[in-house]
Structure formats: structure tokens, C-alpha cells
Amino acid sequence: MLVVGLTGGIASGKSTASRLISAHPSRIPLIDLDILARQVVEPGQPTLRALVAEFGTDILADDGTLNRPALGRKVFGNPQRTKTLNRLTHGAIRRRMAWLLVGYWLRGEKVVVVDSPLLVEAGMWKFCGQVVLVWCSEEDQHSRMLQRDTERGLTPEDATNRLNSQLKLASKIPYADVVLDNSSALPPSSSSSGGGDDDDNNDGPSWAKGINASPQLKQQVDRLVSSWTNRYGAGSGRILWLLQWVLPPLGLVSGLWTAYSRRKATEDKVKRQSKL
Ligand SMILES: CC(C)(COP(=O)(O)OP(=O)(O)OC[C@H]1O[C@@H](n2cnc3c(N)ncnc32)[C@H](O)[C@@H]1O)[C@@H](O)C(=O)NCCC(=O)NCCS
Ligand SMILES: Nc1ncnc2c1ncn2[C@@H]1O[C@H](COP(=O)(O)OP(=O)(O)OP(=O)(O)O)[C@@H](O)[C@H]1O
């Protein structure tokens, strides 16, 4: 099973790319770590108790749920607190992800996409067979975040703090096997309404009709998903997948070998980039 890590930066377009992948007729399963991150802090979860013990009861809303903007304001912009937040949440998120991956493997899935904003920061790229980076400029990230979240009380300073809590997108490029360029604008009808059902001037593939994304991103996602389905869909790729699925030790050795060789190649790319 090919585990694809889909990453990017805040507001670079990961969710938009994920929506496109999920809508593709190949029905590739997708695990969204932002959603798992919400599940592990639901009321009654040990992770929520650990966060309250660390950051205080003022991160809770009146109904006992996590007040997300309040916690965000406490941690983003303060590297030490961001590190503590990661330490308290990431273990539980990873465990949920691992169980979901086992479930998909048992079901005989050939490709699973893991959407994670912090794939590089948290070192999870090492466990992926392919890393896909959704890219746009930092200025676009900032303005798209404000456009999306101002109503939720996000200020320009909050947006800058959130951007600074992550690695710059440029420094994530060496980790990526594929870069999806999301710098093109949305079609006028969808960007002005914020909705997206009116897709008359959409040049993208027909299955992506109605999704609020640029035609350029739709085409890139179409090519990417086709490359995955071609890899395992027929011939020797399909036989290799079948062998790995029915003989789990073979699958494990092959997965470890892929991870090892990708890791070495990526570390060399990162070293070369840091010398430039
Ligand atoms: C601090 C929290 C409550 C703020 O919630 P809020 O609803 O305002 O933001 P949301 O969860 O939608 O995240 C939006 C984006 O912020 C960025 N972000 C989230 N957590 C982090 C982090 N620990 N470090 C850097 N950036 C982060 C990501 O790009 C993410 O896509 C929340 O982000 C959280 O629980 N973070 C810790 C868990 C985590 O690391 N999640 C990322 C997926 S592993
Ligand atoms: N090409 C584009 N042009 C303008 N806006 C866009 C474009 N692509 C996406 N957006 C908008 O930018 C915002 C961020 O996109 P999206 O939610 O896909 O990013 P994300 O990387 O998942 O963000 P986060 O990490 O914060 O969850 C959304 O409001 C989305 O509609």
C-alpha cells in the first residue's frame, strides 16, 4: 500500500487538494490529521485533560469543549508553548492514524493519502512512500487565511504568528516528490461567492465540477491521481501489490526499504539546499 503524505503550509490549499482527491472517481481514501486532532481533544479525552492541566481552564468554553481560538492565541507565536502543544497532542493523533492505516490495509486499499500540515515538522514524511506539497506564496497564505478566518476573530498578527509556527514552504520543497502549484486564482464566480457550485468557466476535469478550486489545481490533481492508479492498476504493479498484500512480511520489508532509500535521498536534497 502506498502511503502518500499530502502537506503544505497553513492556508496553502491542502484541504482544497484533499477535496479534489476525495472527489476523484478512483475513490482514494484520505485521512485528515486536522480532523483527528479535533477528535483527540473532544470532552472526556485524556489529551484535553492534559491540555487543561498545562494551559489552564481558560482554554475551555462554557460547555466544556476546547475553545480553539483561545488555545491558538496562547500557543502560536510562542515556540516553547507550540512545542508543548505538539508533545501533548501528536502521540494520540499518530495512534489514531496508525489504526486507520491498518484498517485500510486490511481492506486491500492500494493507495491512502494522509493530509497533514505538519508532515515535515513532525518527521512523519519518513514513513510515507511519496510526499506531495501544496504550494503558494507566503503572501497568498497570509491573505487567504485572513479572508477565511477574519470572521472567526483572526487578526493579521494572529495570521503572522501561525505562519511563523511552521517551517517556510520553500524549506519543505526538498522533502516533496511532487509539488502542486496552487498559486493560480480561483475562477471569479467561486472566489466572489465563497461557495462554488456555479462552475461554468471551469476548464478542469468533469469529476471536479462544483469544487471551489482553480482549474490549474484540478488538472494537477487529476494527473497525480492517475499516476497512482496507473502504478497499481495493471500489469507488474498490480502483481507486486497483490504479493505484498497476501505476504505481509514481504510488504513490510518492501515498505521499510522504500522508506529507508527515500529518507537517504531526501536528507541529501535537504543538505544540498542548506548549502545554497
Ligand atoms: C491550537 C488549535 C486548537 C487551534 O485550533 P484552530 O481551530 O484555530 O485551528 P485548526 O486546528 O483548524 O488548524 C489550522 C491550521 O493551523 C496550523 N496548525 C495547527 N496546529 C499547529 C501546530 N501545532 N504547529 C503549527 N501549525 C499548526 C495547521 O496549518 C492547521 O491546518 C489546533 O490547531 C490544535 O489542536 N493544534 C494541535 C494539533 C496539531 O498539531 N494539529 C495539526 C495536525 S497534526
Ligand atoms: N487558488 C486559490 N486562490 C484563492 N483562494 C484559494 C485558492 N485555493 C484555496 N483558496 C482558499 O484559501 C483558503 C485556504 O485553503 P485551504 O483550506 O484549502 O488550505 P489549507 O492548506 O487546508 O489550510 P489550513 O492549513 O489552514 O487548514 C480557503 O478559504 C480556500 O477557499
UniProtKB/TrEMBL annotation:
* Entries under InterPro entries matching the protein: Depp_CoAkinase (IPR001977), P-loop_NTPase (IPR027417)
Q: Which GO terms describe its molecular function?
A: ATP binding; dephospho-CoA kinase activity
Annotated region (Disordered) at 185-212
Gene3D superfamilies for this protein: P-loop containing nucleotide triphosphate hydrolases (3.40.50.300)
Q: Which Pfam families match?
A: CoaE (PF01121)
Q: Would you say which domain of life the source belongs to?
A: Eukaryota
* Spans traversing the lipid bilayer: 239-260
Keyword check for NAD, yes or no.
Answer: no
**GO BP annotations, alphabetical order:** coenzyme A biosynthetic process
Which of UniProt's keywords are assigned here? ATP-binding, Kinase, Membrane, Nucleotide-binding, Transferase, Transmembrane, Transmembrane helix
Fetch the PANTHER family from UniProt.
BIFUNCTIONAL COENZYME A SYNTHASE-RELATED, DEPHOSPHO-COA KINASE-RELATED
Q: Which NCBIfam families match?
A: dephospho-CoA kinase
Supply the name of the protein: Related to CAB5 - probable dephospho-CoA kinase
